[in-house]
Amino acid sequence: MAFWLDLMFGNWIGLLSMIVIFSTLGIVSYMLWMFVVKSRAE
Fold first, then answer.
1. Model pTM above 0.70
2. Where are the domains of the chain?
3. Fewest CB atoms within 10 Å of the CB: 10, 18, 32, 42?
4. A Pfam family in this protein (predicted)?
5. Phi, psi at residue 9, to the nearest 5°?
């Protein structure tokens, strides 16, 4: 676990990749939520 924490937050490349992964998950979940809302509206 310490290896993964050092890999993710030890340098800026790992931190940047974590930011990219979490923002991608956020965008995908937002798009899925909008799809559900638009489908339910009819």
1. no
2. 2-41
3. 42
4. DUF3149
5. -115, 5
